[in-house]
Specification:
The chain is built from three helices and four strands; from the N terminus they run E-H-H-E-E-E-H. With 113 residues, it is an alpha/beta fold. It has a single domain (3-104), classed as Hect, E3 ligase catalytic fold (2-Layer Sandwich). It starts with a strand and ends in an 8-residue tail after the last helix. Helix 2 packs across helix 3 (92-105). It has helices at 15-26, 29-40, 92-105; strands at residues 4-7, 57-61, 76-78, 83-86. It is globular, with a radius of gyration of 13 Å. A hairpin with a 4-residue loop joins strand 3 (76-78) and strand 4. It catalyses: S-ubiquitinyl-[E2 ubiquitin-conjugating enzyme]-L-cysteine + [acceptor protein]-L-lysine = [E2 ubiquitin-conjugating enzyme]-L-cysteine + N(6)-ubiquitinyl-[acceptor protein]-L-lysine. Residues 1-113 form the HECT domain. Keywords: Transferase, Ubl conjugation pathway. InterPro entries: HECT_dom, Hect_E3_ubiquitin_ligase, HECTD1/TRIP12-like. GO terms for molecular function: ubiquitin protein ligase activity.
């Protein structure tokens, strides 16, 4: 977790950040590649791994209106700055599902969020 920078609502001790790294460690190599491509725009890490990403992977809390629930949304990214906008999902299972959907569906597209 030292390789990332939680910000804007998250810390290294946040449940969502801990969920994220637990999920990433459970992904197989293809799922890890999809996630990496989704977040950074590149299918491979630089020499030195996540710690060598420049800028570092930043994980922020995705915000919503008070009437909306985070479980209804996918994470979004800004690949040029390795920036992951991650909702504070209600469970690790939902986070895993939403990360995989976003990583798979976001491979060949570019959208503003």
């Amino acid at each position: 977790m030292e390789c990332c920078r939680p910000d804007h609502g998250y810390t290294h001790d946040s449940r969502a950040v801990k969920f994220l790294f637990e999920i990433l460690s459970s992904f197989d190599s293809e799922q890890q590649r999809l996630f990496l491509q989704f977040v950074t725009g590149s299918p491979r890490l630089p020499v030195g791994g996540f710690r060598s990403l420049n800028p570092p992977l930043t994980i922020v809390r995705k915000t919503f209106e008070s009437t909306e629930t985070p479980d209804d949304f996918l994470p979004s990214v800004m690949t040029c700055v390795n920036y992951l906008k991650l909702p504070d999902y209600s469970s690790i299972e939902i986070m895993r599902e939403k990360l995989l959907i976003a990583a798979k569906e976001g491979q060949q597209s570019f959208h503003l969020s």
